Amino acid sequence: MARTDQTQAAVLGALSVTPMSGYALRQEIRDTLGHFWSESFGQIYPALAELARHGLVERRGGERTGSSTFAITAAGTARLRELLAEPAQPAPPRNPLLLRLFFGRHLGPDACRELVQQSRARAEDQLARMAAVRRELAADASSPADRPYWLLTVSAGEHAARAQLAWADEALAALADLRSADGADRLPSASPTPEEHP
Amino acid sequence: MARTDQTQAAVLGALSVTPMSGYALRQEIRDTLGHFWSESFGQIYPALAELARHGLVERRGGERTGSSTFAITAAGTARLRELLAEPAQPAPPRNPLLLRLFFGRHLGPDACRELVQQSRARAEDQLARMAAVRRELAADASSPADRPYWLLTVSAGEHAARAQLAWADEALAALADLRSADGADRLPSASPTPEEHP
DNA sequence: GGGCACATGTAAGCTGTTACATGATTAA
DNA sequence: TTAATCATGTAACAGCTTACATGTGCCC
Question: Do A102 and B156 touch (CB under 8 A)?
Answer without folding.
Answer: no
